[in-house]
């Protein structure tokens, strides 16, 4: 098939027409100029803005991730410190509890010793009073017995002498040894 073939020449789209070609080129260049001025600039500007927003979002996300990692590390460090402080507080509380337990024990022991000593003193005082009362009753009984035996009234000096003799003859050493043993 050559250019001179009648089938090819009859098709208007294939036929070379110089005037149409020039007007097609002029229309194409005008359209290209208008598109460049009116469409390509704003489209390119929109694409560039979108590219910058995406880039900024990526940078912001990276900064947020870095900040999150930093905060996570700080959080972990704070948790570690809190655990350490909690252990310190528990240790201190144990020490305080042990000290209080020891103090209460010492106070209880001191109170028990004080009460025992007070009870001992009371027992000694009661023993001393009982011995004095026994001596007084022995003296009175001795006077009564002496009056009945002699059948006469004795004066104060005789009473005193008889009481002293009777008391000297009594043996209170067993009671006093028992008191000392306590």
Outline of the structure:
With 182 residues, this protein is mostly helical. Helix content is 88%, strand content 0%. Helix 2 crosses helix 3.
Strand elements, count: 0
Succession of helices and strands: HHHH
- Discrete helix count: 4
Strand content: under 5%
Give the overall form. rod-shaped
Radius of gyration: 65 Å
Helix and strand content put the structural class at mainly alpha
Task: Look at the structure and give the mean pLDDT.
Answer: 84
Terminal-residue CA separation: 150 Å
Helicity level, as a percent range?
Answer: over 70%
Could you name the ranges where pLDDT drops below 50 across 5 or more consecutive residues? none
């Amino acid at each position: 098939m050559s250019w001179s073939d009648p089938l090819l020449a009859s098709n208007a789209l294939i036929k070379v027409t110089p005037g149409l070609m020039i007007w097609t080129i002029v229309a194409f260049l005008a359209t290209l100029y208008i598109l460049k001025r009116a469409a390509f600039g704003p489209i390119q500007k929109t694409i560039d803005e979108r590219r910058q927003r995406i880039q900024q979002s990526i940078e912001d996300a990276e900064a947020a991730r870095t900040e999150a990692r930093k905060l996570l590390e700080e959080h972990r460090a704070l948790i570690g410190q809190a655990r350490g402080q909690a252990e310190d507080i528990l240790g201190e509380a144990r020490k305080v509890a042990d000290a209080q337990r020891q103090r209460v024990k010492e106070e209880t022991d001191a109170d028990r010793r004080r009460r025992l000593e007070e009870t001992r003193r009371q027992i000694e005082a009661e023993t001393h009073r009982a011995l004095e009362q026994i001596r007084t009753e022995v003296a009175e009984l001795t006077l009564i017995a002496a009056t009945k035996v002699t059948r006469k009234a004795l004066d104060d000096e005789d009473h005193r002498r008889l009481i002293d003799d009777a008391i000297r003859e009594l043996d209170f050493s067993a009671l006093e040894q028992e008191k000392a043993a306590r």
